[in-house]
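Priority: medium. Attachment 1 of 2:
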């Protein structure tokens, strides 16, 4: 199993058990036994919860919250920082009620708050009981209703900060303040000029869509002073970016944010909070390098860099240390859930045996078969060239009608048999690139029960890499390589980039399927952004979701279960009334019965099949 690099990316969450099962470790209880993931899946199946399944592990989430809060606390103590850390979780990263409820619960001892980027998210935030000194930070475009809600929520004890995104937004705030006669708690979003590297480079720097450049900032300060509300401006927000690969980018951007903080303070703005937004990354590949799917730092190092940079900058300016706020989402929730799916069947691009020679074979079929006679490790390339040539000639003759279907099938089978021999002969390392590329194209297609578009949208949209591994038989040498295709009818619906020990590969090492037992595969670290970004391509809906807790006796507790969408539910999302569908179908049936095209028994079976489908899971059952 070393090929999957589980020890590298699995952190303190995942490992392999001696029986070959992938196991989950409780990060909060390091001495507790590792719990077999296949046994969790079987346990859930017994309770009627089937794959595809999104599995959330409660202690993984708690660990995410503890990790950032404890790391900031440790850095603050070590550096002698005089302020506090008051993080907020950005709701957009995972809005699901079960997740937010737990984040609020686990975060309460840390006075952890919430970030709302829209009115619906503020509505969610205000439905929770936060610690009395926790923040609700409101970002994004805000209308008068949003602002009214934010201002009045302070009467309920919420510390709701309206982060001004533009001078125009300030005018709306001023109107609502005049209407309510209530003072707001204000923040201001500053656009940093520093551009961060990585996949989300465009969310930072001059061309980022949010935040005010300096001239607008000055205009906002002047307007607040003029209207007598400058004392309400308490927080400076400078979003650093997302999935920042290089920790030195963090230092540079925080340094720039501090310059604004110092200058605004010198302007007379009574700032007390410095909010550095998101950006703390996740090491999806475990490589610890500054690249798109990896980062070259730990959570502790990120926190230390932030605290040190702010300390040095403000000490030098002779200013008090502000309360530090970050809006890390990905690093808090990504590792807390995984997608588990079963393989339905495999399409193979090789064959274990070739047909016996036949006197009536076309000479091209005989030529193809003859390649085995000179096939050897030092003539691999030549054999591959010959096989490709003869097979292409055969296909050309078939297209022109000179070869029949059976001859063609014999030729293709001989070709596939040759390919499996070439695969076995090819050395593990040092193969010519052309042979490598050819063998890659011979990877099996494992057809899997999930929708990439619904469950792993970033894999499709931005080539995000998630660790993907078989969940069982990890003590057996994987004897095949496969690309994973989903069950949408879209050829984009596949995973063909995998994190392996020797780098990213176009195919995943897998085991020959055994029809007597299911073969499960897991995609890890899918807790951030994936759930809400997912869509209904081919009308595959939400998967089943289970939230579990790992127990010290190597079993688990089911904390919450959420059934996946039924077909009726997804139909209603696309404007159908499922009852109308049933009625329309019944009408067609009755017409067929009256015209004697359908008897009473078939009528009953057909109606039941339609009803069962409409009330059932959208995935393969
Ligand atoms: N805050 C703001 C304003 C954001 O735009 C984002 C995401 O880009 C975040 C927080 C969360 O960022 P991350 O998930 O990288 O921590």
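Attachment 2 of 2:
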């Amino acid at each position: 199993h070393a090929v999957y690099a589980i020890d590298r990316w699995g952190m303190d969450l995942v490992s392999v058990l001696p029986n070959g099962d992938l196991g989950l470790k409780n990060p909060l209880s390091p001495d507790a036994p590792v719990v077999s993931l296949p046994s969790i899946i079987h346990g859930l199946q017994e309770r009627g919860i089937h794959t595809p399944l999104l599995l959330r592990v409660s202690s993984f989430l708690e660990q995410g919250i503890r990790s950032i809060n404890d790391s900031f606390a440790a850095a603050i103590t070590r550096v002698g920082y005089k302020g506090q850390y008051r993080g907020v979780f950005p709701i957009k990263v995972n809005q699901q009620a079960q997740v937010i409820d737990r984040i609020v619960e686990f975060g309460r001892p840390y006075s952890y708050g919430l970030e709302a980027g829209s009115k619906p998210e503020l509505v969610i935030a205000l439905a929770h009981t936060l610690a009395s000194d926790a923040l609700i930070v409101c970002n994004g475009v805000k209308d008068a209703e949003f602002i009214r809600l934010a201002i009045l929520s302070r009467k309920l004890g919420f510390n709701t900060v309206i982060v001004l995104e533009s001078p125009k937004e300030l005018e709306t705030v001023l109107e609502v303040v005049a209407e309510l006669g209530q003072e707001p708690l204000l923040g201001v979003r500053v656009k940093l000029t520093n551009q961060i590297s990585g996949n989300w480079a465009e969310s930072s720097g001059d061309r980022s869509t949010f935040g005010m450049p300096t001239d607008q900032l000055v205009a906002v300060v002047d307007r607040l002073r003029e209207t007598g509300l400058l004392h309400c401006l308490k927080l400076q927000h400078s979003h650093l970016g997302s999935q920042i690969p290089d920790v030195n980018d963090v230092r540079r951007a925080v340094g720039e944010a501090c310059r604004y903080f110092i200058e605004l303070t010198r302007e007379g703005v009574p700032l007390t909070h410095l909010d550095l937004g998101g950006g703390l990354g996740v090491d999806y590949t475990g490589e610890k390098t500054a690249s798109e799917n990896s980062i070259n730092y730990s959570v502790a190092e990120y926190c230390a860099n932030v605290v040190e940079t702010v300390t040095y900058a403000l000490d030098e300016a002779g200013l008090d240390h502000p309360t530090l706020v970050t809006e890390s989402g990905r690093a808090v929730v990504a590792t807390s859930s995984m997608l588990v799916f079963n393989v339905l069947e495999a399409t193979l691009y090789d064959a274990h045996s070739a047909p016996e020679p036949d006197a009536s074979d076309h000479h091209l079929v005989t030529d193809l078969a003859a390649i085995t006679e000179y096939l050897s490790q030092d003539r691999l390339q030549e054999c591959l060239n010959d096989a490709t040539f003869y097979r292409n000639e055969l296909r050309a003759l078939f297209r022109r009608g000179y070869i029949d279907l059976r001859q063609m099938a014999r030729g293709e089978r001989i070709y596939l048999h040759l390919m499996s021999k070439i695969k076995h002969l090819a050395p593990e390392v040092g193969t010519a690139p052309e042979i490598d590329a050819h063998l890659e194209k011979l990877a099996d297609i494992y057809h899997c029960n999930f929708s990439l578009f619904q469950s792993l949208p970033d894999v499709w949209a931005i080539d995000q890499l998630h660790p993907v591994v078989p969940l069982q038989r990890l003590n057996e040498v994987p004897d095949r390589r496969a690309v994973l295709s989903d069950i949408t009818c879209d050829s984009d619906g596949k995973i063909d980039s995998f994190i392996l020990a020797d780098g990213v590969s176009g195919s995943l090492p897998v085991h020959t399927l055994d029809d007597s037992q299911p073969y499960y595969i897991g995609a890890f670290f899918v807790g951030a952004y994936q759930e809400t970004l997912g869509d209904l391509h081919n009308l595959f809906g939400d998967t089943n979701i289970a939230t579990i807790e790992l127990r010290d006796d190597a079993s688990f507790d089911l904390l919450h279960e959420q059934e996946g969408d039924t077909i009726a539910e997804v139909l209603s999302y696309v404007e159908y009334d499922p009852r109308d569908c049933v009625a329309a179908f019944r009408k067609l049936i009755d017409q067929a019965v009256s015209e004697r095209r359908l008897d009473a028994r078939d009528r009953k079976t057909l109606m039941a099949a339609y009803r069962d489908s409409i009330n059932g899971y959208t995935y393969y059952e």
